[in-house]
């Protein structure tokens, strides 16, 4: 039973990580498309440089958010596993030391 719960926690983390990576790719794609549009609209070299700088900034932000989500997922998995271990230890303790009341 515990093995299944551990496997479920690990699977949930992996799914959330894939989701975070996909979201990052979407955000980077949006940044790239926006930058290309801004470069076409820009009339001078300074406008093109600003568009490129905004693109890099948005890509860096997407990368940072992805890493935060992955770290959060890892922490959540460890909390879940620790909670399962604590519950198991409490159940074992209660089983080994039953209260004898008649």
Automatic annotation (TrEMBL):
Pfam families: LEA_1 (PF03760)
Organism, as annotated: Marchantia polymorpha subsp. ruderalis
Domain of life assignment: Eukaryota
Family of this protein: Belongs to the LEA type 1 family.
Sequence ranges of Basic and acidic residues compositional bias: 11-90
UniProt name for this protein: Uncharacterized protein
Ranges for region Disordered: 1-102
Species classification: Eukaryota, Viridiplantae, Streptophyta, Embryophyta, Marchantiophyta
């Amino acid at each position: 039973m515990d093995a299944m719960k551990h496997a479920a926690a690990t699977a949930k983390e992996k799914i959330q990580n894939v989701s975070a990576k996909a979201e990052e790719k979407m955000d980077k794609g949006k940044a790239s498309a926006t930058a290309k549009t801004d470069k076409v609209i820009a009339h001078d070299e300074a406008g093109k440089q600003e568009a490129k700088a905004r693109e890099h900034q948005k890509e860096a932000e997407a990368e940072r958010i992805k890493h935060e989500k992955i770290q959060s997922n890892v922490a959540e998995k460890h909390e879940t596993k620790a909670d399962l271990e604590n519950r198991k230890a409490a159940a074992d303790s209660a089983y080994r030391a039953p209260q004898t009341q008649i």
